[in-house]
Amino acid sequence: MEPMGTRTKIGLIALLMVVMLTGCWSRRELETLDFITAVGLDHAAEEGKIQVTVQMAKPFAITGSVQSSVQEKPFHVMTATGYTVFEAVRNLNSISPRRPFWAHARFIVFGEDMARDGLQEALDFFDRDGEPRRTSYILMAQGVKASDLLQAEFSQEPMPSEGISELLQGTRLAQSTVAAMTVNEFLQALEGEGIDPITVRVELIPLEEDFAIGGDVLRDEVKAKTRMTGSAIFKDDRLVAWMNRPQTRGYLWVTGQVRSGIININEPETADAYVSLEIVGSRGSFKPQLTKDGIKILVQVEVHVNIGEMQQYIDIRKDPGLWVSIERRLTQVVKNEIMAAVTKAQLFGADIFGFGAEINRRHPKEWRRLRENWEEEFKRLTVEVEVKARIKRVGLVINRTPIRK
Predict the structure, then answer these.
(1) CB of 132 within 8 A of CB of 126?
(2) How many CB atoms neighbour CB 208 within 10 A?
(3) Which pLDDT score, from 0 to 100, does residue 246 have?
(4) Could you tell me which residue, 212 or 232, shows the higher pLDDT?
(5) Which has the closest alpha carbon to 254: 287, 276, 220?
(6) Which 3-state string (H, E, C) describes the chain?
(7) Residue 30 — very low, low, confident or very high, per pLDDT cuts 50/70/90?
(8) 294-310 β-sheet, strand order
(9) What gap in Å lies between CA 272 and CA 74, rounded to an integer?
(10) Per-residue pLDDT at 36
(11) pLDDT, tens digit (0-9, with 9 covering 90-100), for 64-112
């Protein structure tokens, strides 16, 4: 038998490659998919079942031209139930002509009732399934069902999911008053030792009395919107308490997550007037210390601010002590916010800061002694706060413009 020629070999290889590359057995045509942008989970009306609500984009409504003042909403909301999240998700196929596609979900909202009963079982689907992304944020709806929250809209954004996503980022970066966690971070906190989850609290704000949240196809006007007002504290996987804005920022000071924000303090010379200070930089950290009297957590925070506004005339050049007084008052505000957060967390035994995890990292032998009774140990540990505050700039003027009287 003659040896196979070079051209013959190349031909066989090319033929084999053509056979292997032809056809896309797992392809998904875009027109067959329904893109999910947000998910809501609640207890269903039928006992023992879970209600899954999804917000889906309508591309033809987003790209279509608007011919009148009333336009079709670029999203629609669908609901299905099941004894598990997976069953409810699969049941969406019985009411949707298109296959739900999960990779674009921006966030997952849980109703308060469901969150108080525990989220571990509901989160297993988002942990196990390959299509939903772990980078989706987890939100907690206060006082309403998650399905209601998914109907809220924004006048500036056609897609509510986009509006809530931008609202979350704006609140985090401009105010530092929400503590956001992704699905991945939430699951890591549930799995880890010495740390409990904390995530965003969202409220539904009606813009007219007795409004009805429904599935209208056409958009006439926005009837309800959302706002983010602090955070939700978890003990293990159960919602146990809410934190307001100052308490949430106290948590963020400790964990080094404060980016910006406004702090108002009383002016040194006028009790009923304020100085607004803009946070322009901060660093925060904590370190556990083992003493003969027990465990002490040392929290150290450094904050830099600019003076954004003065309500009364202050001549700082004539009295440099006023500058020091403002920094001292700022220091006290930061300490108060930190201790408010610590007190709230200790009240419910929820170590949202990860003090226990840090003890485990630095003092593993001591942690083995504490871990079994960490909730009680956390409630009674001592927290010491050190704050360094500095005013960086005063804006375009040194003093407020004096008004001649």
Answers:
(1) yes
(2) 10
(3) 96
(4) 232
(5) 287
(6) CCCCCHHHHHHHHHHHHHHHHCCCCCCCCHHHEEEEEEEEEEECCCCCCEEEEEEEECHHHHHCCCCCCCEECCEEEEEEEECCHHHHHHHHHHCCCCEEECCCCCEEEEEHHHHHHCCHHHHHHHHHCCCCCCCCEEEEECCCCHHHHCCCCCCCCCCHHHHHHHHHHHHHHHCCCCCCCEHHHHHHHHHCCCCCCEEEEEEEEECCCCCCCCCCCEECCCCEEEEEEEEEEEECCEEEEEECHHHHHHHHHHHCCCCCEEEEEEECCEEEEEEEEEEEEEEEEEEEEEECCEEEEEEEEEEEEEEEEECCCCCCCCCCHHHHHHHHHHHHHHHHHHHHHHHHHHHHCCCCCCHHHHHHHHCHHHHHHHHHHHHHHHHHCEEEEEEEEEEEECCCCCCCCCCCC
(7) low
(8) 261-267, 270-291, 294-310, 382-393
(9) 48
(10) 87
(11) 444 444 466 777 889 999 999 999 999 988 887 778 788 888 899 999 9
258: number of Cβ within 10 Å: 25
Nearest to 125 by CA among 113, 133, 117: 133
Q: Are strands 33-43 and 50-57 parallel, antiparallel or unpaired?
A: antiparallel
- The C-alpha atoms of residue 190 and residue 184 are separated, in whole angstroms, by 10
134, 183 contact by CB (below 8 A): yes
How far apart are the C-alpha atoms of 221 and 154, rounded to whole Å?
10
C-beta of residue 277 within 8 angstroms of C-beta of residue 325: no
Mean pLDDT along residues 164-190: 91
| CA–CA dist 310, 277 (Å, integer) | 9
Phi, psi of 33 (to 5 degrees): -110, 150
**CA distance linking residue 352 with residue 247, whole number of Å:** 12
Can you tell me the distance from the alpha carbon of 102 to that of 402, in angstroms, rounded to the nearest whole number? 59
How many other C-beta atoms lie within 10 A of the C-beta of residue 39?
25
**What domains lie within the chain, and their CATH numbers?**
30-243 (no CATH), 249-405 (3.30.300.210)
List C-alpha distances in Å: 244 to 71, 143, 177, 334.
37, 15, 8, 15
Q: Which residue has the tokens 């509510």?
A: 160
pLDDT tens for 313-372 read 777 777 778 888 989 999 999 999 999 999 999 999 999 999 999 999 999 999 999 999
